[in-house]
Amino acid sequence: MSNLPKIAWIGLGIMGSPMSENLIKAGYSVTGFTLEQDKLDRLAAAGGTAAKSIAEAVGDADVIVTMVPASPQVEAIAYGEDGILENAKSGALIIDMSSITPQTSVDLAKAAKDKGIRVLDAPVSGGEAGAIEAVLSIMVGGEQADFDEAKPLLDALGKTIVLCGPHGSGQTVKAANQLIVAVNIQACAEAVVFLEKSGVDLTAALDVLNGGLAGSTVLTRKKDNFLKRDFKPGFRIDLHHKDMGIVTDAARNVGASLPVGAVVAQLVASLRTQGDGGLDHSALLRGVERLSGAEL
Questions:
Q1: What residue stretches are annotated with the 6-phosphogluconate dehydrogenase NADP-binding domain (predicted)?
Q2: Is 89 a residue of the active site?
Q3: Based on C-alpha coordinates, what's the Rg of the chain?
């Protein structure tokens, strides 16, 4: 019998499926629940256990990991008669790895404490590739003791794992991350269009740019997307639009001005209105191409 904690995993999407599978590979017993049967079948094929409900998944779990799209989904799975808080055992630890508002995380931690349940907010950065390769950056908010307990599990999912402060801090840092990523992708997209219209060898140009000060993880990860116009979603425009709303609202609340971020937030929003919300966020290139006269 394994001495590792029993894991319940709620949310088996683009990120959640490979992450849960990495825990299984690390020797954890993982029981999962999501709304899509094919994702449950995938978990079972990987050696996990498919549950028929949240209550069934979390009832015997020591640690409950959640990875769902946004605050409304976190609230839907956490609260109510069929939710996590009503069905998890006292002393369980919830690790919410969704990207949500900092206030949602703070509220969840308070509600869970009344039930004798502990919470960490632990959003991630690195996209689908980072999830598959278990090299995610994980920014955590919560108590030091809970972080220390969760660290071995998080080590199976990521490479850079940092406690950033009290509840909500992980989400605040994630919001800053999404601001930086969006602005970086937009800058790369503009550079791609500029280079192509100038007749430069784009592959060579991106290679040399990525070797200098203009280089970034974003350019490394998204270079092939730009070159091949492959916008299969690793992280969807719809989700980045949600995240830009989070950072814009949070910045307003603390009195921080985000002039460039506000512009990029509008560019992300415009892509959604043009039907590109389901594409990878590297599809910001399509927005620049439209502004530059291309017919897509």
A1: 6-165
A2: no
A3: 20
